[in-house]
Design a protein that fits this description.
- The model has no long low-confidence stretch (mean pLDDT about 95).
- This protein starts with a helix and ends with a helix.
- It has one domain (about 5-195, about 230-250): NAD(P)-binding Rossmann-like Domain (Rossmann fold).
- Strand 5, helix 6 and strand 6 form a beta-alpha-beta unit.
- It is globular and about 50 Å long.
- It is an alpha/beta fold.
- It has ten helices and seven strands.
- Helices cover about 50% and strands about 15% of the residues.
- Strands 3-2-1-4-5-6-7 form a seven-stranded parallel beta sheet, sandwiched between helices.
Length: about 260
């Protein structure tokens, strides 16, 4: 085998099945595109059926293998049924990316209990439910790659997003706990911590030039991240290239934490 072929095979996801939650748009969609381009069959999840189906159609038009699974990550029944259906159809789930998330911005003292729960439920409970269901199948197969999505906000906190910051701290801790508990089963768990990215998720910041430019100027690369900057990391962590990486946080922020 040539060195080029060996390199290509090392980073290949051919024959693998990936489930990516919150994948209809933004960073989740970028994860899905990268995994599919590396050869995986990607199951995109979202609650927005229209956007989800449009995203699947877009990837298929590029010759990529993918399908849709519409379910609410906070519903135990929906999660377990969806995961069972995926396993029944594809025989396996090799890769899980817990990307589904939401955001609310307001002063901490103005948050209602319902708003607090709405953020914690999606990020933390959703990650718990989906991972628990998928991990049961991965344990049977003695292999798998689980990726939690954290954030740099647990290292450099901004105001008005206390529930989100707390939720990301919890999902990061969950990822580390799973790395220890599931590692003996051949399952690796890692955390990706994005910085500032140009997505609809950050629309409230993107629409305010004074905030957008101030943050951009703090980033050593002098630009906000784009979703496609993150996709290749999912491939790396889930391929043979990342076979010995377990329990680590990968910060992808253009260097902003280093410069603060």
């Amino acid at each position: 085998m040539s060195q080029h072929a060996l390199h290509t095979e090392t980073f290949s996801l051919k024959g693998k099945v990936a489930l990516i939650t919150g994948a209809a748009r933004g960073i989740g969609f970028a994860y899905a595109r990268s995994a599919a381009a590396a050869g995986a069959h990607v199951v995109l999840n979202d609650r927005d059926a229209k956007s989800l189906n449009a995203s699947v159609d877009e990837l298929r038009s590029q010759g990529l293998s993918c399908s849709a699974s519409e379910f609410d990550v906070t519903s135990e029944g929906e999660v377990d049924k969806a995961v069972s259906d995926i396993v029944a159809q594809h025989k396996q789930i090799d890769i899980l990316v817990n990307n589904a998330g939401n955001q609310l911005r307001k002063p901490f003292v103005d948050f209602t209990l319902a708003e607090w729960h709405s953020v914690m439920d999606v990020h933390v409970t959703g990650s718990f439910l989906v991972t628990r269901s998928v991990a049961r199948h991965m344990i049977d197969r003695k292999s798998g790659s689980i990726i939690m999505i954290g954030s740099i906000v647990i290292e450099s906190v901004r105001g008005t997003i206390a529930p989100y910051t707390t939720a990301k701290g919890a999902t990061t801790a969950l990822g580390k706990a799973l790395a220890v508990e599931l590692g003996p089963h051949g399952i690796r768990t890692n955390i990706i911590a994005p910085g500032m990215y140009e997505t609809e998720f950050n629309r409230a910041l993107l629409d305010r030039p004074e905030i957008y430019n101030t943050l951009k100027d703090k980033i050593p690369l002098r630009r906000w991240g784009k979703p496609e900057d993150l996709g290749p990391l999912v491939v790396y962590l889930s391929s043979e290239a990342g076979r010995y990486i377990n329990g680590h946080i990968f910060t992808v922020d253009g260097g902003i934490l280093t410069s603060l």
